[in-house]
Design brief:
alpha+beta; Jelly Rolls; 7-stranded antiparallel sheet; 4-stranded antiparallel sheet; 6 helices
Length: 249
């Protein structure tokens, strides 16, 4: 499937308006099935090579997330999708640069929630020209802990955060009661669908209490001229040390 220029312009329009956009069937199901089949073999063979701080487990001992997943060979294959490249470059506004990848496995019955946050509090990109592509490997919805968004929250800059002490997501918004007027949306995704969100969009997810795992991979991008804000980074890393000091006891 080749996306037309008009379709890509429409994707950008909705992304700019709401801070996120769902793209149905961006990846064909055969590609996703092949990727997922290789996924678990790769993890089993390489789990000892990951930094302990990069892997988060549920209380049952299952993998909930891996936060440095760029070396998985399928990451490059997914990034090479021609339609994805066109969309990302259109949304970023200039040539996009790769900025990492993550795995979110959120197993059935034990998958952990992700506190409400903004990605750029972690990333510290100076011009906030950055986004995440969340690729669904199966069903992802409200019932199995699917990602949710607060519409149009990307328009208000970096909001104040505080330490969450949640494994895999060290920060959460400090004044969540101020966001009650924003509509919370739970995209309903199937294998091959993806949702793309701005690095300032407020989002999170709830615990997976269902019998269905919620597996997805994220690809992150920043603008060609984007840089790390050293002051923002210093503040975040200071908080991160305190976070790990408590949860790694």
């Amino acid at each position: 499937m080749k996306l037309s220029k008009d379709k890509i312009n429409l994707i950008k329009k909705h992304y700019d308006l709401n801070g996120y956009i769902v793209v149905r069937g961006l990846f064909d199901k055969e590609t996703i099935l092949s990727a997922e089949k290789y996924l678990w073999t790769y993890i089993e063979d390489n789990i000892k090579n990951f930094d302990k701080k990069e892997v988060n487990f549920t209380k049952n001992g299952d993998i909930n997330s891996i936060h440095n997943f760029s070396k998985w060979p399928w990451v490059k294959k997914l990034r090479d999708n021609k339609n994805l490249k066109k969309i990302v470059n259109k949304l970023i506004g200039n040539q996009a640069k790769n900025f990492g990848a993550e795995l979110f496995a959120k197993p059935a019955k034990s998958g952990m929630p992700a506190p409400m946050h903004q990605d750029n509090y972690y990333w510290c990109i100076d011009n906030a020209c950055a986004l995440t592509v969340w690729i669904s490997f199966g069903a992802s919805n409200k019932k199995n802990g699917g990602i949710y968004y607060l519409k149009k929250t990307h328009k208000f800059g970096i909001l104040e955060h505080k330490r969450s002490y949640a494994p895999g997501s060290s920060q959460t918004l400090k004044y969540q009661e101020n966001l009650k007027s924003f509509k919370k949306i739970y995209p309903n995704l199937q294998a091959g669908d993806c949702v793309i969100h701005h690095c300032l969009s407020v989002h999170g997810s709830e615990k997976n209490n269902s019998n269905i795992p919620r597996v997805g991979c994220t690809l992150r991008y920043i603008g060609k001229n984007s840089k790390i804000d050293s002051i923002m980074k210093m503040k975040y890393e200071k908080d991160l040390k305190k976070h790990y000091k408590k949860i790694m006891r």
